[in-house]
Design goal:
Blueprint: H1 2-10, H2 21-29, E1 34-38, E2 49-52, H3 53-63, E3 71-78, E4 83-92, E5 99-103, E6 107-110, E7 113-114, E8 129-133, E9 136-140, H4 145-157, E10 162-164, E11 169-177, E12 187-196, H5 204-208, H6 211-224, E13 231-237, H7 243-251, E14 262-264, H8 279-284, E15 289-292, H9 296-299, H10 307-317, H11 319-324, E16 327-332, E17 349-355, H12 361-370, H13 385-389, H14 409-423
Parallel strand pairs: 11-14, 13-16, 13-17, 14-15, 15-16
Antiparallel strand pairs: 1-9, 2-8, 2-10, 3-4, 4-5, 5-9, 6-8, 7-10, 11-12
Protein name: ATPase AAA-type core domain-containing protein
Organism: Rotaria magnacalcarata
Domain ATPase AAA-type core: 233-356
């Protein structure tokens, strides 16, 4: 068995072929093994969950009385940390003869989050890299059936061993095109893929004005997750009160954000929303969420033209809403009374909320402490939300504040070159 493992350690990976764990088991024990695949459980559907390799090894060796003996089968160089890591390894369990655990195709990921309240530290801290594996395979003799079933269930449901891939909210922009020298009308299309980061908000009530805000928040989230729904949500308040910050958080509350069309609409484009050039785009992308920032210039009752208001009314509660099913989320800095009263009628207005211009001293200090502000004694008066976030220490990293990707570009590029070299 030792000779076989030594040979495998020095071998090169054949394209599309895994380590022959089953054959190694057969060579050692002389019997064909039973096999079970174990993946980490998740409370949410369609969520990518992976085992954290270091936590998994610690759990097996320390909690089950298993000796710390394992064989690194194959290693790769991690281009970021400049260290070798085991991307395929076998765990031999000598204290329980007849069990072999295979960790196949381990990989580095970034920006994953803990699946429990336990903090899992990155294996490579500068870029928050974690070494993970999607599944483990346990080969065993039939007499260990009870033990293996118990072990696999405990590993799968121990959320302190797993990491979760964050949901991605991708914002699209509206582009305009027109052929030169052509009589064809202007056409619109969706362009860009802006990945919205999920900000860390420990307590919504502290940041946004108390328990009354929770009722509004739950109402908005319920509305966003309804299928074939339309309507209008208005968020207003002074600049720096946290409207955009909250929208970033809100987009990640959509259960199927990756399948929704989240479309950013500039304020000056509201007048074109129901025009013949833009309607085909909205029909093609039904059940979209339109996000309009700083819309007071187009929605004010003082404007001589009310076409922008009429467009929002038609899309949120008019005949067009029956066929297009568009949800509209608009923000503005002016007082609510400055808007056209037609926008506030029940039926089309799902919710509206005025963000407080400042947080009182107690809430300001509580928020500052939660986001990593060390000099709390400097807060001696009510402050806007933006001012509090500006006080954060430079070394504080906000949760999910990295680029949204499964692995960094350097790792991905290295993997591609390595696989190409192996195929040669």
């Amino acid at each position: 068995m030792n000779e076989i493992i030594a040979h495998v350690k020095q071998s090169r990976r054949a394209p599309g072929r895994d380590i022959p764990s089953r054959n190694l088991f057969l060579s050692k024990y002389g019997r064909i093994p039973q096999k079970i695949r174990v993946t980490p459980a998740s409370d949410e559907t369609r969520t990518i969950v992976v085992f954290h390799v270091k936590s998994l090894l610690h759990r097996i060796y320390n909690n089950d009385g298993i000796g710390n003996e394992f064989s690194i089968v194959r290693r790769h160089l991690h281009p970021c940390s400049k260290k070798y890591y085991a991307y395929e390894q076998l765990l031999l369990l000598p204290n329980i003869d007849g069990i072999l655990i295979s960790l196949n195709d381990c990989s580095w990921v970034t920006n994953y989050t803990n699946n429990s309240k336990k903090t899992i530290q990155p294996d490579y801290i500068p870029d928050r890299h974690f070494l993970v594996v999607r599944e483990i395979i346990i080969f065993y003799l039939s007499e260990h059936e009870t033990f293996v079933q118990k072990l696999s269930h405990e590993l799968a449901h121990d959320d302190t061993l797993s990491l979760v891939k964050p949901k991605i909210a991708m914002l699209r922009l509206i582009g305009k095109s027109q052929s030169r020298g052509s009589q064809r009308p202007t056409s619109f299309y969706l362009m860009g893929s802006i990945y919205i980061k999920k900000p860390y908000i420990r307590d919504l009530t502290i940041s946004y004005g108390g328990k009354d805000f929770l009722n509004v928040h739950h109402k908005i989230v319920t509305w966003l997750n309804k299928k074939d729904a339309s309507g209008l949500v208005l968020l207003h308040g002074a600049p720096g009160s946290g409207k955009t910050h909250y929208i970033r958080y809100l987009l990640h509350c959509i259960t199927e954000a990756e399948e929704r069309h989240l479309i950013y609409v500039p304020g000056d484009m509201i007048e074109n929303l129901t025009g013949p050039a833009l309607i085909p785009l909205l029909i093609e992308n039904r059940n979209s969420l339109l996000i309009i920032e700083d819309a007071e210039g187009s929605l004010s009752r003082l404007r001589t033209s009310n076409q922008s208001v009429a467009n929002l009314l038609n899309l949120s509660d008019g005949l067009l809403s029956d066929g297009i099913q568009v949800q509209i989320l608009a923000t503005f800095n002016s007082p609510l009374i400055s808007l056209d009263a037609a926008l506030l009628r029940p039926g089309r207005l799902v919710a509206q909320y005025c963000f407080p211009s400042t947080l009182n001293i107690e809430n300001a200090r509580c928020l500052a402490d939660s986001i990593g502000v060390s000099k709390l004694d400097q807060i001696t008066e009510p402050l806007p939300l933006a001012n509090i976030y500006a006080m954060r220490d430079e070394n504080v990293v906000e949760e999910q504040d990295d680029s949204i990707s499964s692995t960094c570009r350097k790792c991905k590029s290295s993997t591609v070159h390595q696989e190409a070299a192996e195929e040669e």
